[in-house]
Amino acid sequence: MEKKKVTVPLVCHGHSRPVVDLFYSPVTPDGFFLISASKDASPMLRNGETGDWIGTFEGHKGAVWSCCLDANALRAATASADFSTKVWDALTGDALHSFEHKHIVRACAFSEDTHLLLTGGAEKILRIYDLNRPDAPPKEVDKSPGSVRSVAWLHSDQTILSSCTDMGGVRLWDVRTGKIVQTLDTKSPMTSAEVSQDGRYITTADGSTVKFWDANHYGLVKSYDMPCNVESASLEPKFGNKFVAGGEDLWVHVFDFHTGDEIACNKGHHGPVHCVRFSPGGESYASGSEDGTIRIWQTGPLAHDESEGLSPNGTLEKEKANAEEEVSRRIEGFHIAEEAKSKGKEEAEGL
C-alpha cells in the first residue's frame, strides 16, 4: 500500500466551542499575531508564528462571530451575539470601547488607517465608528438588503465590501455617498470574503465555489469548483500562486491559483472547517474548526510519513518555551484566563 504524506500542523487548544473566525495581523516589530473568534464568547490572541497563547479578551456575554486586529496589532475588535462590538487594547487585554447594537453583530473590520471601525449584522445596517471620537454616533450606510455576514475595506478606505447570510452577491459601497456601486454575483450566499494583501483580488467562497475577482474593475478572474461546500478561502499573500479552502468535509485543501489543481489535502480536524487564513508572509496558514481547535499548517516541506510515529490524530504538539516567555514579557499585565476552564454557559449563537 502506498504511503501517504501528511502535513503536521501546530495544534492550538483553548477554545471550548467552535472557532468561527481567524485574523492575522500584518508583520510588526514584535512579529505577527493571530486572533480567533469562537462561540465560547472568549476571543484569544496568539503568537502568529508559534501559535503560543498570549491571552483571552474577557467581557462578551454571547458567541463571538468576528475578530480583527489593527495594522499595528495594538488594538483588537470583536463582534458578538450579545449585540455589541468591542475594541480592546491588544497589549493589556483591557476593553477600550463597547459599541452597542440592537441585534447580533456578525462582522467587524478596522480601516486601513486604523481610525475607523466597520460593523454589520442582523440589523441589516453597516455602521462606521470613528475611533478618535468613540462617543459620536456612527455613520450609517444605506440599509443592506439582508443580514450582514462579512465586511472588509478596500481602495484605501474609500470602498467597503459586504455580504449577506441569506442571499447571494457581494456588495461594494462607496463610503462617501453610502451607495452600492457594484454587486458581484454569486449563486449562493457568500460565506467568506478576503481582500488580498496587495489589493489586487477579492477572494470569495460561496456554496462549493471559490472565486477570485479583480478588486479594482470587479471582473471575475477565476472560479473553481471545490470538492465540497466551502466556508472559507484565503489567497497566499506573497506570490499569489496558491490558495487554501476549508469546509464541511473536515479537510483543509490547498490549490494552485492558476490551474485550480489540488496541491495538498490536510487532514486532522474533527469537525467542519469554518475559517482559513494565510499568515502575512505566506509561510503558514491557520484553520479553525467546529472541533474547537486552531491548526497552523506550514507551506514548506514540513511533512511526515503517516507510519512514522505521529500521534493518533496525525498532529504534532509543539512547545516553544523561549518564544512564549518573550511574548509573555511583551504583554505583561494582560488579563490571562485559564485556557481550559469551562464557561458553563449556553450563549445565543445567532444562527
UniProtKB/TrEMBL annotation:
Residues 303-328 are annotated as: Disordered. Keywords: Kinase, mRNA processing, mRNA splicing, Receptor, Repeat, Transferase, WD repeat. One of its GO terms (cellular component) is SMN complex. Pfam families: WD40. SMART domains: WD40. GO terms for molecular function: kinase activity; RNA binding. Residues 316-328 have a biased composition (Basic and acidic residues). WD repeats lie at residues 57-98, 98-132, 266-298. GO terms for biological process: spliceosomal snRNP assembly. InterPro entries: WD40/YVTN_repeat-like_dom_sf, WD40_repeat_dom_sf, WD40_rpt. Belongs to the WD repeat STRAP family. PANTHER family: EUKARYOTIC TRANSLATION INITIATION FACTOR 3 SUBUNIT I (PTHR19877), SERINE-THREONINE KINASE RECEPTOR-ASSOCIATED PROTEIN (PTHR19877:SF13). This is Serine-threonine kinase receptor-associated protein.
